[in-house]
Write a structure and sequence with these properties.
about 200 residues; mainly alpha; 2 domains; about 60% helix
């Protein structure tokens, strides 16, 4: 299958999952700073770009995190790290899902991983995915308490801050609303002034 056709198929799959939203200049700048072009990553690691696209389309590697407005498929620099750690692409799914005791939860996280939508983490690993879920749940529960513990909330938000990138406006379009950074980090810091002073982060 020609490279152009594979690239078109991948773009079509991406839009099926994320919707067809425009990328602004600011979105492009953010993505270019945070991610790498698939072809460039493959060239640097001596991998065949077409073969990688097929693995993505076959549900064996995650889809690109973004399509830049020029059509470039933008992926994390560590795209192949988990497959390498697992011992190869063929072993990746079993290795990945084994990080969850609940098989159903593991399969759900595998599907989310393959979607490429885990742009909410600086490094997408099972440990980071699980910790992000724990932190957002803890922050949400703490915010519901009548006398919310500001010190604990800031501690949780700071830990989440270390896991998450800044996001861009495109993300708010494709996710249909605020990001977890908006609701669990920025909103917490705005609602609860830091007890140890405004200059501390």
């Amino acid at each position: 299958m020609p490279e152009t056709h594979l690239k078109e198929q991948l773009a079509e799959r991406f839009r099926e999952i994320n919707g067809d939203h425009p990328m602004t200049d600011a979105d492009d700048a953010y993505v270019s700073a945070q991610f790498v072009v698939l072809e460039e990553l493959c060239a640097a690691q001596d991998r065949d770009t077409d073969a990688v696209r097929r693995l993505m389309l076959d549900g064996r590697l995650p889809l690109p995190g973004y399509l830049r407005s020029d059509g470039a498929e933008m992926v994390p620099a560590d795209l192949f790290a988990l497959a390498d750690e697992a011992g190869g692409v063929g072993l990746l799914e079993a290795w990945f899902t084994a990080h969850w005791a609940d098989q159903v939860a593991g399969k759900a996280e595998w599907s989310a991983y393959l979607s490429g939508r885990y742009v909410c983490l600086r490094s997408v690993t099972p440990a980071a995915i699980r910790r992000k879920g724990q932190l957002t749940a803890a922050i949400g529960a703490a915010l519901e308490e009548p006398d919310a513990d500001a010190v604990r909330l800031h501690s949780l938000a700071d830990e989440l801050d270390a896991l998450e990138p800044a996001f861009t406006d495109y993300d708010r379009l494709r996710f249909g609303g605020p990001t977890s950074r908006d609701t669990c980090i920025d909103a917490v810091r705005a609602r609860f002034p830091r007890p140890d002073g405004p200059g501390r982060r």
